[in-house]
Amino acid sequence: MSTTPRKIAFIGLGIMGSPMAANLVKAGHTVTGYNRSQPAIDKLVAAGGKGAGSVAEAVADAEVVITMVPADPQVEEVVLGEGGVLENVKPGTLVIDMSSITPQTSVKVATAAKEKGVRTLDAPVSGGEAGAIEAVLSIMVGGEADDFADAKPVFDAMGTTVIHVGPTGAGQTVKAANQLIVAVNIQVVAEAVVFLENAGVDLPVALDVLAGGLAGSTVLNRKKANMVNREFAPGFRIDLHHKDMGIVTAAARAVESPLPVGSLVAQLVASSRASGDGSLDHSALLRGVERLAGREVN
């Protein structure tokens, strides 16, 4: 149990947010959750948390507010909008956005919060649904060092690699790089899978061997079963990775950094989404490779 229990409001109880909030409860914090769908709130209550009927109700007495929503528009609505976080929190509250958004939106949120005496951190995560459930997320944090130190015990209840990477927006920049690496890695694993199958090799055995050598990666370990079994229930949807590839492409252009391979993979992610796979896990990039190989994909 945490040595210093905190009153935490958690906004956004989706695939990632739900287990993250549950792990905060397990660590001894008082967690009040809000989500647009009631079943997600009920799930948190069943795990020992509390439910709220609105953002305002959730954050009213919070010392720490965590937001975990899909994209920039939702962050702006929840934090900056009417009835949102900044209208309803007390000065001195620490607002931590753990969504994956543009660095520019993180700066916009921090600027608005500062005017109200509210502290902020941008703290996107990597590790997917499994990492969230197991509380082994990698958390990359941008903001003031003192605020990071204050939040560190909260982060430790959700992740095992928790690092302050720089000022406001830096967490989102590092997350953009993470999403670039993950997308490229998934794509080449998918290409290897089709290559191995076309060559008649025992796929599970081959992937086990590859995972033990230099080709091994967390992506290969986490996603090989999805690909072998063609099971693509969303841990992280292609729709969201498409959004993230837009973020990294724009961010790289802003700092004049070339993305020759990343730009191609961004197009392949977009193609998978356009083919109707947006709601599937990003390991379903395999389906795009299968289409290119002339296979019938159901």
UniProtKB/TrEMBL annotation:
Record key words, sorted: NAD, Oxidoreductase, Signal
Keyword NAD listed: yes
Gene3D superfamilies: N-(1-d-carboxylethyl)-l-norvaline Dehydrogenase, domain 2, NAD(P)-binding Rossmann-like Domain
Signal sequence annotation: 1-21
Domain 6-phosphogluconate dehydrogenase NADP-binding as annotated: residue spans: 7-166
Residue ranges constituting the 3-hydroxyisobutyrate dehydrogenase-like NAD-binding domain according to the UniProt record: 169-287
Stored InterPro entries: 3-OH-isobutyrate_DH-rel_CS (IPR002204), 6-PGluconate_DH-like_C_sf (IPR008927), 6PGD_dom2 (IPR013328), 6PGDH_NADP-bd (IPR006115), HIBADH-like_NADP-bd (IPR029154), HIBADH-related (IPR015815), NAD(P)-bd_dom_sf (IPR036291), Tartro_sem_red (IPR006398)
Pfam families assigned: NAD_binding_11, NAD_binding_2
Protein family per UniProt: Belongs to the HIBADH-related family.
Protein name (record): 2-hydroxy-3-oxopropionate reductase
UniProt organism field: Streptomyces mordarskii
Taxon lineage: Bacteria, Bacillati, Actinomycetota, Actinomycetes, Kitasatosporales
